[in-house]
Amino acid sequence: MNCLTAKQLKISISGKTICQQFDLQLNAGEVWGILGGNGAGKTTLLHTLAGFRAADQGEIRLFDQAIAQLKPRTRAQQMGFLLQDDQAQFPATVLETVLQGRHPHLGFWQWESPEDYLLAEQALLKVGLADYAHRPIEQLSGGERQRLKIATLLVQQPKVWLLDEPANHLDLHHQIELLSLLTAQIKVVQGCLLMSLHDLNLAQRFCDKLILLYPDQPPEQGCVADLLVEEKLSQLYQHPIRCLETDAGRVFIAG
Ligand SMILES: Nc1ncnc2c1ncn2[C@@H]1O[C@H](COP(=O)(O)OP(=O)(O)OP(=O)(O)O)[C@@H](O)[C@H]1O
């Protein structure tokens, strides 16, 4: 099943073309990564696919409905977005914040039900924040805030997940723990996930497919095995990248 499709997309920002005549199809059960250097356009591409900004040309469809025509509430029932920088937040506790993930599913005057609270508590448990439920969010560390944002998306229960640098602020244990949780969830609910990443080893471990946003040539997309190779990665980052075969699988290091 197609979850998110883009046809003949042209995206530019500040006079720079990120992509043109770009087609994309995210299918049920797929985990995609976007790789590219700073300023390559990863965030811009994600924001455009989410319908937060208009493309210069082309069409984006979420479950076969034009995203530009979807009401924000309908879109939020189907698509969750993890913003990279999300500083401006109202004073609230961790539990109040995670419950906001239920809002697209509640009626205008409807309060959260006991089931909503249960979902929120389960999500906090999954991200290791159960003991922080009544803490004001301004007292959380960077990594704890990131885990709270992921918990909020878990209770939102979207089918399509767009994540801008989900590994930001997370220690190695939480990177693996949370990306394992999210990618397993995608397979179970037959949704799809597209995330920007700076860590090639996380891309290798968690992604099925990739989009490479080069600085000097059109984007490329395909399977991880075809794209995570020294020559393409060195071109992508304009820096020599080496791929090493180890007991733990392939690892990538900057030369
Ligand atoms: N609001 C904006 N107005 C004008 N130009 C912008 C704006 N946001 C980003 N840009 C520019 O658009 C280009 C793409 O930025 P974008 O944030 O999409 O890159 P990125 O690949 O996500 O980068 P990073 O890895 O540094 O987060 C950059 O050259 C950036 O300077």
Describe this structure in words.
The protein is an alpha/beta fold. It has a single domain, classed as Rossmann fold. Helices cover 34% and strands 28% of the residues. It is built from 9 helices and 12 strands. The protein has helices spanning 42-50, 72-78, 94-99, 114-126, 142-156, 172-189, 200-206, 224-227, 230-237; strands at residues 2-13, 16-27, 31-35, 57-62, 65-66, 79-82, 160-164, 192-196, 209-212, 220-223, 241-246, 249-254. It has a 6-stranded mixed sheet, sandwiched between helices. The protein has a 4-stranded antiparallel sheet with strand order 2-1-4-5, covered by helices on one side. α4 (114-126) packs across α5 (142-156). The longest helix is centred in the C-terminal third of the chain and has 18 residues, at 172-189. The termini are far apart. The model has no long low-confidence stretch (mean pLDDT 94). Bound molecules: adenosine-5'-triphosphate. This is ABC transporter domain-containing protein. InterPro entries: AAA+_ATPase, ABC_transporter-like_ATP-bd, ABC_transporter-like_CS, P-loop_NTPase. Keywords: ATP-binding, Nucleotide-binding, Transport. Residues 4-240 form the ABC transporter domain. One of its GO terms (molecular function) is ATP hydrolysis activity.
**At the third CATH level, what is the topology name?**
Rossmann fold
CATH class group = Alpha Beta
Give the name of the CATH superfamily.
Answer: P-loop containing nucleotide triphosphate hydrolases
Report the strand count. Answer: 12
